[in-house]
Task: structure prediction
Amino acid sequence: MTARRLDDARVGRLLLAPALVALAVLAAWPGLWVLWLSLQRRIPVFGIERFVGPAHYAFLAADPRFWNALQVTLIFTFVSVALEFLLGLGVALALQGQRRGRRLAVALLLLPWALPSVVTGRMFEWLYHPSAGLLNVVLGGEAINWLGEPALALPALIVADVWRTMPFVALLCYARVLTIPSEIYEAARVDGAGALATVRDVTLPLLRRVLLIALLFRTLDALRAFDLMFVLTGGGPANTTETLTVYAYRSLFQTLQLGFGAAIGVVVGALVMFVAWGYLRAMAHEEEAAA
Amino acid sequence: MFTGGSCGRALVVVLSVLLAGCAERPDGAGPVTLVFKHAKILGPSDPVPALLREFERRHPGVRVQAESLSWNSDDQHQFFVINLEGRGAAFDVMMLDVVWVAEFARAGWLLDLSRWVPRTELEPHFPSTIEPATWNGGVWAMPWLMNVGVLYYRTDLLAKYGLQPPRTWEALVDQVVRVRAAERDPRLDGVLWQGRQYEGLTVNALEAIWANGARVFGADGAVFPEEERAAGGLAFLRALIVAGVSPSWVTAADEELSRRHFGDGRAIFLRNWPYAMDLFQAAGSPVRGRVGIAPLPGRVGGAASAASSGGAHLGVNRRTRHPELAAALVRFLASAEAQKAMSVGGALNPTRMALYHDRDVVRAHPDFPVVHDLMLRARPRPVTPAYLMLSTTLQPEFSAVLVGVKPPRQAIEHARRRLAYLLEGLR
Result:
C-alpha cells in the first residue's frame, strides 16, 4: 500500500518534470539572468562590462525620473482599472437587461478589444489632434492641447486605455451573468427585492470571483503599460506619461544600457509579482469562504 | 588592464579583417548575393530598385537583394542593434540614420571603408555629412541623403505687409505680431515647430540653443559650457508659446502635424525639413505657390543661423562575407549618378553639393539652389557614439521647459547630472 503510494508520488513527480523544466527554462532562468545583468554596468557599444553590485538600484532610489515613472505607472493603473471596472460592470448589467440586439451589442463591444493597439493609438492620435481632431471640433473648435499639456496627457491616455479594455471586463462579467440561473432571480422577486437590491445582493456576490480574475489580469496588464504612451506621447510632455516600462525600453533598447535597463525591469517585475501575490491571496480567501 | 583590453581588441580587429579577407569569394566563383537593408523610401516613386539592377549589370554574377525596414527610426535602430550585436551577417549594406554612425563605428559593427574610399571622395558632399562619416579617423559610412532644418514662410502674407523673411527670431516675432494684428484672423497661427518629446524636439531645441551661441559639448567634454546662453535659447522657445506666437500644441507636434497645419494655410511660419516643399506645391494644396523657403533665423546677439542637418549614410556590416563588393555597392549608391537618379526620380535630397545646381535636378525641384545654401551652413548634431543616450536624456528636460514645469537653468542642471552618471567613462 505504502509502496504503491510512493510509486504514485514518483510517477507524479515524473509527470510534473517537463512542466517544471519548461518553467525553469522559460521563467526562472531569464529572470535570474536579468537580475544578474542588473548588477553590472554593461554597455555593448562601448565594450563596457563590469560588476557594479547594487549601484544602479542606488541611482534609481535617488532618481527623480524613476520616481516619476513609478508614480505615472501607479496612477495610470489605478485610475484606468477602476474606470474599466465600473464601466465594464455597468455594460454587462445593461446587456443582461437588454431584450433585443444583444448579439450586435456584443459584436460592437468586441471591436475595440480586437483592434491592434497601434491602430487604437493612431485612431486616438486623430481624435486628439489639436486643430483637426474630432474631439476639439465637437467641443466647439477650441484648440485643446490634449497630448501636449502636462495635466491632460495622462488622462487622455487613460481614456484611450479604458475605451480599449473596458470590453474585456464587460464580456467576462456578462459571460458569468449568463450562467446565473433564472430561479435565483425569481426567488429574489418573490422575496420582494427591487432591481437595485437584486443587483446588490444577488448579481454582484455571484460575480465576485470573475471580477477578481478580471481585476488581476487588468492590473498586471496596466502595470506594464507601454504601447499607448509609446505611440501617442513618447512619454511626454515632460515625462508626465512615461511609465516604468517606457523608461526601461529607453534605457535597454534605445540607448543599450543593458545593466541599468535591467535594473528598471527588475523593479517592474517585483512590482507585478507583489501585486499578483496580493490578488492570489485574496482569491485563496475567496475559495476558502466559498468552500 | 586598459592597455590589455585595447590590445586584445586590436587583435580581434586584425583577425577579423584577415578572416573576412579569406572568406571573400574570388570573383566569378558562383553567384554572390548582397543584402541591402534600408528604411522604406517614402515618396511618389522608389528609385532604388532601378539603381540596384544597374549595379548588378555592372557586376556580373552579383545579385543585390533590397530588404526594407519599417519607416520608424526606433524600430530600425533596434533591428540593427540586435542583429549586429548578435554578430549576424544576414545583411551586407545598411542605410543608417546619420546620428547612429559614430555609435555603430564605436561598437565595431561597421567596416572601415578607408581602403576603398579615399578622403577626397568625400569632399563633394556637404561638410556636415563628413564629420559623422569620419568619426575617430576612419571612413565608416558614405553620405547618401541630406536633410536640413529650414524656415517656410507665406510669401503672400509677407509681401502684403512689405516684409522680408526674418533674419532673427526677434524679427520673426515682430512680423507675426504685425501680420496677425492686421489680418484679424484668430485661426492664423504664428510659427510652428516640433515640440513633442521625441528626436524632433532635440533638433528644435538644439537649433534654439545654437542660435543663441551655445554648444552641447565644450572642447573639454563639459556639458553645456555656455550655460547661460543655452538656458536663454530654451527660455526663448518657452516664451514663443507663452506669448502665443506659437500655439500651445507645438508641445505635442511632430513634423507631420505641424506640416499639415501650415499646409492648410493656418500659420505664417513653419520650421521643418525640405521634404515639405513638394507637398506644399502639389496640385490641390491650399498654399500652392504661396510658400517660400529661407534659412532658420538666428538670434540678436547670438549666432547667425543654426540649422541642424540630418539624413542617412550607407555603411557596411563588419561581418559581411563580401567586403569588396559591399564597399563597391556603397560607393555606387553614393555616386553622383545614383544620387541624381534618386533626386530626379524621387523626392530625396542628395548629399552631393553639385547636384543642387544640376539642370535636370533643378527642373524637378526648383527650390534646390536655395536649399543648397541652407545645407551648406547646416550643423550636425553632436557626433558622439553616445548620441542616443544624450538625446533621450535631453528630451524630457527640454519638454519640461516647453510646458513650463521646469525653469531652463534647472532643466540643464538635471540633464547634466544624469549625463554624468550615464556617460561615465564613455567619452
